Amino acid sequence: MKLNYRPILIKTFELVLLVLSFLIIFGPMTSLFLWSVAQKWYWPHPLPQEITFAYWKQALGIEKSLAIGAVSIVPAFLLSVGIAIVTVIISMALAIPAGYALAKYRIPFGTLVMFLFLMPNAFPQQPIFVNVLQMFTRMGLAGTVPGVILVHILLGLVFGVWITSATFRSIPPSMEEAARSVGATAPKAFFRITLPLAAPGLLASSVFVFITSLDEFTGTFFVGLPFVQTLPLTLYSSSGYNMQFASVIALILLVPSILFMFLIQRVLKAEYVGGMG
């Protein structure tokens, strides 16, 4: 009787892919966590020789010590979150009407307009922000929180407009038409029918804008320094001399992104994603 090895090979291949995927995804995070609690860790030891939570306590403002070369990141974290919240509010205030118009009306060169919203990510960011810095310096916005917020809005509108437009495009026009046929005005039909139906997609768009702002480094570096110190800039300044402190900041930055990704997976419908293409 001839044995069929094909199912065994397929299962083995799937298992290998699963293990590799797990290592690729969680390997760096595991390394970051080990570095964040390592007091001593020298080659060739696979694990830290001494464990300490002093860097976490220092970063979270629980303890103050100059001996370990770390500082409290609470002010930088609060500033980053505040900038991200303002960025979301302004970006969505612009993205919702723009996305609705691009989805529901025949706008001349609508495809070109959608493409233009991708321009900030279509080219290397350093030359763009060098020119933005020169312009903001003349306007008095360089090194200020409003200047950083404007840069974050520029980047956040990419996700804001594209996801919002896809969300409104996925809602059948017959829903609004039915509301208008029974006497509802256009604004009332929008706020009572379209907007509630679009809420999951708009929430997902807001989350993407928030994460983009929270993690933004290049624009903040060029426009915000030396007076605006966000969490990514704190990570950058500490990564060259203190691996443990940098690992703590990196993990703190990862937490909102991971939580929001799970949230998006629950609320973002497949038709919204399809509409983005």
Count of domain modules: 2
* Tally of alpha and pi helices: 13
Q: What is the string of SSEs from the N terminus onward?
A: HEEHHHHHHHHHHHH
CATH architecture of the largest domain: Orthogonal Bundle
Number of strands: 2
- What gross morphology would you assign? globular
Sheet having the most strands: 2 strands, antiparallel
Provide structural commentary.
The chain has two domains: 6-52, no CATH class; 74-276, MetI-like (MetI-like fold, Orthogonal Bundle). 74% of the residues lie in helices and 2% in strands. The chain has 13 helices and two strands, in the order αββαααααααααααα. It has helices spanning 6-36, 54-59, 74-104, 110-116, 119-122, 125-139, 145-169, 173-181, 186-215, 218-224, 231-239, 243-267, 270-276; strands spanning 38-40, 50-51. It has a two-stranded antiparallel ribbon with strand order 1-2. α7 runs antiparallel to α10 and α9 runs antiparallel to α12. The termini are far apart.
Short descriptors:
277 residues; MetI-like fold; 2% strand; 74% helix; mainly alpha; two-stranded antiparallel ribbon; 13 helices
List the helices and strands and how they pair.
Blueprint: H1 6-36, E1 38-40, E2 50-51, H2 54-59, H3 74-104, H4 110-116, H5 119-122, H6 125-139, H7 145-169, H8 173-181, H9 186-215, H10 218-224, H11 231-239, H12 243-267, H13 270-276
Antiparallel strand pairs: 1-2
Helix pairs in contact: 1-12, 3-7, 3-9, 6-10, 7-9, 7-10, 7-13, 8-9, 9-12, 11-12
Short note summarizing the structure:
With 277 residues, this protein is mainly α. It has helices at 6-36, 54-59, 74-104, 110-116, 119-122, 125-139, 145-169, 173-181, 186-215, 218-224, 231-239, 243-267, 270-276, and strands at residues 38-40, 50-51.
